[in-house]
Amino acid sequence: MREGVGILLAVLMLAVAVSAQPPIRLYVAPNGNDRWSGRLPRPNASRTDGPLATLQGARNAVRRLKVTQRLRVPVHVLFAGGTYRITEPVVFTPEDSGTADAPIIYEAMPNARPVFDGGKRMTGFRKGANGIWTTVIPEVRAGKWYFEQLWVNGRRAIRARSPNRFYYYMLSRIDEGIDPLTGQKAYLSNRAFIARKEDIAPLLSLSPEQLRDVTVVVYHSWEISRHRVASVDAETGAVITTGGHTWRFLEWAPNQRYHLESLLAALDEPGEWFLSRDGTLYYKPLPGEDMGRAQVYAPVTDSFIRIEGKPEEGKWVEHIAFKGLTFRHAQYVLPPQGHGDW
After folding, report:
1. Which residues, including other chains, have CB under 8 Å from residue 84's CB and lie 6 or more apart?
2. How far apart are CA 171 and CA 191, in angstroms?
3. What gap in Å lies between CA 162 and CA 148, rounded to an integer?
4. Alpha carbon separation from 228 to 83, 139, 143 (Å, rounded)
5. pLDDT band at 14 (very low <50, low <70, confident <90, very high)
6. How confident is the model at residue 20 (pLDDT cuts 50, 70, 90)?
7. Which distant-in-sequence residues (6+ apart) come within 8 Å of 275 by Cβ?
8. 104-120 as b/e: b if 16+ CB within 10 A
9. What rounded mean pLDDT belongs to the chain?
């Protein structure tokens, strides 16, 4: 009996000792270096050690830590205030998991505001006609980059749209016809309609490639769908999009609403912008905006963190947390077939 009590007391004392141990702390700062240990909140005087520099570097440091020891206490990865550039998502897999007793927490330092920025600043704007400023982006011209969001001085700018306010209205639905993508007869009632000819007049001068960059934003009774344009017909006013929606157009009410986005001819309102495939970015500033000092950002990544478990193997990403971190400037590019929440 005494031997059993002794063993129980030893176990309890070990548990208390483990719980009393402080958590492991790793530090990350904009002036850090991913080759450093991350055990210091600031670079040392000789700049041989100090904080890490990136979220990816912090994840890798935790991985190395788990290889060298079994985690028995929580790991706190503490981010100093400042901006951390991200060009692609940081992926967390089952090997990055903590445990119930030793979770891994990526968090802001007390009173700090770390910001993870997925954008690239646009500079070199020059003033042109009609108060429109332009700059050329070589990566877009080379076909290596394209984006559909833009931020100016912290405000998400409006893609050039028509009409500027309110809507256009469909006249009727096209149920069947020749699909311009295949040349074959097809069911079109959820992707084709007749428009007023004056509403779609700016589309008629566009090449097929330019036309596919135009977005038709269709308003349904409780949601919107976004469509790329496959063809327009000047004589009939027919607009056929590249992909359909679950419901037919004009399913719930007559005169369904829509507007057009992303065409240069619609760039006529302050605060609007347009990106051409030739790499030219156009922007019409709001009153009082100084384009020589404006903070203009375009997104280069579509996400910041990706959690990738392996459920088919029964392996999960678990016991990790993210606290007090700010993410900004991510992108979404409309798929070739468009998108709707159905």
Report:
1. 28, 30, 53, 54, 55, 114, 115, 116, 117
2. 14
3. 16
4. 35, 23, 19
5. very low
6. low
7. 137, 140, 146, 147, 148, 150, 262, 281, 282
8. bbbbbbeeeebbbbbbb
9. 93
Q: Half-sphere exposure of residue 96, counting CA atoms within 13 Å on the CB side?
A: 23
pTM: 0.87
Of the two residues 342 and 130, the one the predictor is more confident about is 130
Who contacts 335 (Cβ-Cβ below 8 Å, separation ≥6)?
243
Band the pLDDT of 5: cuts 50, 70, 90.
very low
DSSP for 218-274, written as a single string? EE-SS-EEEEEEEEE-TTT-EEEESS--SSPTTSSSSS-EEEEES-GGG--STTEEE
| Residue 148 DSSP SS3 | coil
**CA neighbours within 13 Å on the CB side: how many for 223?**
9
96: three-class secondary structure by DSSP = helix
